[in-house]
Amino acid sequence: QVQLVESGGGLVQPGGSLRLSCAVSGLSLAxxxxxxxxxxxxxxxxxxxxxxxxxxxxxxxxxxxxxxxISRNDALNTVYLQxxxxxxxxxxxxxxxxxxxxxSTCHINGxxxxxxxxxxxxxx
Length: 124
Fold this sequence. Notes:
mainly beta, seven-stranded mixed sheet, four-stranded antiparallel sheet, 0% helix
């Protein structure tokens, strides 16, 4: 049974930092591109950052480049998202997700497994 369990969300002031973790079980990070998506109230779910299963290449949404960093620990089967310089517009539920084997698009159309999500609120 595949499980993706997120942790690390919370309330942070603008300019602050959070690190999200995604503990993955039931599938191998070597076979599936893993990423972070987010959904703000009234908006569509969007890809934020992904790490390719093929070559480890990284994708970042333009608005988070230079502020967010994705990484993974294959030994722990865990993926992280370090978020620095947080802005109020980063407020959303953040989801960890795995793409189907053979897909590396960082788009919701490629996702076959989702976590339950963790809420990130950036507010003073």
